[in-house]
Amino acid sequence: MQEFFNNIAKVFTGFSVFDALEILLFAVVIYYVFRVLKNSGARWLIAVFVLILVAAGVVFLGNSELNNELFLLVPLLLILVMLVIFNVEVKRDLLNLGSYAVPERKEHQSGASREEVERYVADIIKALQNLSKDNIGALIILSNDNLPSQVLESGVLLDAKISSQLIEGIFFPKAPLHDGAMIVNNYKIQAAGCFLPLTQNANIPKELGTRHRAGIGITETSNVIALIVSEETGIITIAQRGKISRYADYDLLKRTLNEYYWKDLSADGRKRS
């Protein structure tokens, strides 16, 4: 035990600025790994991560023959494993560098009344169902000021009020912006004709084309919702966090849009009924 404490004392003997910067660097990297694990709900991995770090620290401090370089391999290997397992989360954070920094939405932003928002929800659903009936492809992204700036800059900024006529007009097959994505930001159509990153998920059904892969891809890298209409089948698909729900009907669309605008809207409706 005396040797253990002597080794701890040796660690701080001759402590240099370089050593302090090294510790700070790894503290920042380890914090990022913890944040990714926490946001992914992988609490058991956090426990394993902590146990391995503690065990490695005890072994290092208890053995004077081990050098700093060998000890530093432990967090490096752990970080590499985390990057492999959670590559989607890392890719999302890298893509969002320089994008808008807005706190996570707790409720709908002010500027539109409840009646107006309910009309926007109805107009979006009406447009999707009309496009679906006519087998016209569409891709609508529901964002919260959280898309990378390069996505918005790839299209045409509109800043227009939401209406079913405008949505259907933009996705009309001969319209110049119909091939890109429409960005709905709260109660405005922010942009249209935008290009999105395609998913690299090999498990996506082969019958889903570029429009679906773009819709899924942006939900993997940004916390947004994608509403997709297939031009081949007219099937409406909802994508969130890289997962898809196909054959979306009126009820699922309304529930998704209500959750986007007001988290508690559905609960309020149940209370009144």
TL;DR?
This protein has helices spanning 2-12, 17-39, 43-62, 68-85, 87-95, 114-133, 149-153, 164-170, 210-221, 250-261, 265-272; strands at 138-143, 156-161, 181-185, 188-194, 225-229, 236-240, 243-245. It is of the alpha+beta class and 273 residues long.
Can you tell me about this structure?
The protein has 273 residues and is of the alpha+beta class. The chain has helices spanning 2-12, 17-39, 43-62, 68-85, 87-95, 114-133, 149-153, 164-170, 210-221, 250-261, 265-272, and strands at residues 138-143, 156-161, 181-185, 188-194, 225-229, 236-240, 243-245. The protein folds into two domains: 2-85, no CATH class; 114-272, 3-Layer(aba) Sandwich (YojJ-like (1). Helix content is 53%, strand content 14%. Helix 3 packs antiparallel against helix 4 (68-85).
Q: What's the count of strands? A: 7
Shape: elongated
Low-confidence stretches: 99-110, 264-273
CATH class of the largest domain: Alpha Beta
The CATH level-2 architecture of the largest domain is identified as: 3-Layer(aba) Sandwich
Give a quick account of the main beta sheet: strands, pairing sense, barrel closure: 7 strands, mixed
Number of helices: 11
Strand sequence of the main sheet, in spatial order? 2-4-3-1-5-6-7
Strand percentage, roughly? Answer: 5-15%
Cα separation of the termini: 68 Å
Helix content: 40-55%
Give helix and strand order, one letter per element, not per position.
HHHHHHEHEHEEHEEEHH
Q: Let me know the average pLDDT.
A: 77
* Global structural class: alpha+beta
What is the number of independent domains? 2
Q: What radius of gyration results from the CA coordinates? A: 25 Å
